[in-house]
Amino acid sequence: MKKSGDEVFRGEAQYSIDSKGRIIVPAKYREQLGEHFIITKGLDNCLFVYPLKEWEEFEKKVNALPITDPKVRRFNRTFIGGAADAETDSQFRVMVPANLREYAGITKEVVLVGQISRIEMWSLEAWQRYNEADDAMDDDVAAKMAEFGI
């Protein structure tokens, strides 16, 4: 859990991915993301981008799960098996591996969405479809927020 004063990822921004599969890391995310970080498959066909510290915490939690559970094994294969080390170059660009771009349907335009401890990376088209989903989803989200006391 983030403490008051800790850096968090928030907001959304649209960027282009170049022909080599690179995207510029936004200035507002550079310091807390660092030069080395992890990109992995996320939920809803987006990618999750974790600073190393957050990723290490995530791995500790995952490592404590029982591998005898088939759902845990599937979870591990998706998130841990799909993970790639990422590093920025001198122009703050990062290569998004082809298999991850394919998984998320990222071809040209990318939307980065801050999620407190991580960033979600979406294809523009998928992000637009997600946001145009029917209004019943808003009711479900509101109900869940009430359940969590938010």
Features:
two-stranded antiparallel ribbon, alpha+beta, 6 helices, six-stranded antiparallel β-sheet, about 150 residues, single chain, about 25% strand, globular, about 35% helix
Short description:
This protein is an alpha+beta fold and 150 residues long.
Q: Would you kindly provide a written description of the structure presented here, covering whatever features stand out?
A:
This protein is α+β, with helices and mostly antiparallel strands and 150 residues long. It is 37% helix and 25% strand. It contains 6 helices and 8 strands. It has helices at residues 27-33, 52-63, 70-79, 98-104, 124-131, 136-147, and strands at 12-16, 22-24, 36-41, 47-51, 84-87, 93-95, 109-114, 119-123. It has a 6-stranded antiparallel beta sheet with strand order 1-7-8-4-3-5. A hairpin with a 4-residue loop joins strand 7 and strand 8. The longest helix is centred in the middle third of the chain and has 12 residues, at 52-63. Residues 1-5 have low confidence and may be disordered.
Shape, per Cα inertia axes: globular
List the total number of helices.
6
Helix amount: 25-40%
* Major sheet attributes: 6 strands, antiparallel
Count of beta strands: 8
Major sheet strand order: 1-7-8-4-3-5
**SSE pattern:** EEHEEHHEEHEEHH
- Span of the ends, CA to CA: 15 Å
Radius of gyration in whole Å, from Cα?
Answer: 16 Å
On the 0-100 scale, what is the average pLDDT? 89
State the low-pLDDT regions, or none. Answer: 1-5
